[in-house]
Amino acid sequence: MGRRNSLFSGSEGGAESWAILASLVNTAKLYELDPQVYLADVLERIISGQTKSHQLRELLVWNWKAARELTARVAA
Question: Structure pTM?
């Protein structure tokens, strides 16, 4: 993802959406997560209603990764 891709955002709203997505993807990479796996799980939890609006903090990359690691340790 780079500066050149953002040239095609089309509007101010599109540019803002692009910035949000780029931020989420790069933060996932920073925490050594596969961005596709992270985003798919987060979107599934939001769409299914599994995570309520007051619990969205749990879906931040660092909290999501910690919960996933804890679940893996408990399962092992």
Answer: 0.74
